[in-house]
Design goal:
- This protein is an all-beta fold and about 170 residues long.
- It contains no helices and 10 strands.
- Strands 3, 4, 6, 9 and 10 form a 5-stranded mixed sheet that branches. The chain has a 3-stranded antiparallel sheet with strand order 5-8-7, with no helix packed on it. The protein has a two-stranded antiparallel ribbon with strand order 1-2.
């Protein structure tokens, strides 16, 4: 404005240089080089975090873009998986104790107190397990097949013998 007020809504980030001139009431003028830096707005991208497993340690760092680091994080809504916490540094960590799909809002505040929030989702599954089993008996010289069973986890499963040995003539392919 003619009163010297620079105002509006910046639409691009960067450093901008311009020359401003002022004239006093006696018509004397002066000019000066003016520089202003506009930073991109702080943002917390919506994210789906990697799957976690109950009883297994979990650690993921949330990310923010733009703004002026460092960022301070907080839970803005929703609920974290049972057993996990969100640190002020944006670290979601702990040992989950319940399965499910968890959706929450994470809020970041940058060093100039700008804030932004994003929707975060994480799925916690039950850990894979193999129930102890006594298999049906077999007869020597007669073909034998039995499908072993795993529960929970994320199929398909890859099987191997990790101790002892199956009967001679039987193997896990």
């Amino acid at each position: 404005s003619s009163g010297g007020l620079l105002s509006g809504t910046p639409m691009a980030a960067g450093t901008f240089n311009f020359t401003a001139s002022a004239m006093d009431s006696l018509h004397a003028t002066a000019s000066g080089l003016i520089s202003v830096t506009i930073t991109a707005a702080l943002a917390v991208p919506n994210a789906t975090l990697p799957v976690g497993v109950t009883g297994t340690g979990y650690s993921q760092t949330l990310t923010a873009t733009n703004g002026t680091a460092p960022y301070t994080w907080s839970l803005g809504g929703g609920s974290l998986p049972t057993g996990l916490t969100l640190s002020s540094a944006g670290l979601l960590s702990g040992t989950p104790t319940a399965t499910g799909v968890f959706n929450f809002t994470a809020t970041a505040m940058d060093s100039v107190h700008a804030t932004a929030s994003g929707s975060i989702g994480v799925t916690i599954t039950a850990g894979i397990s193999i129930p102890n089993a006594t298999l049906p008996g077999g007869v020597t010289g007669t073909r034998y097949t039995w499908n072993l069973t795993a529960i929970n986890g994320t199929p398909p499963y890859t099987w191997s013998v990790t101790g002892g040995s199956p009967p001679t003539g039987l193997n896990m392919n």
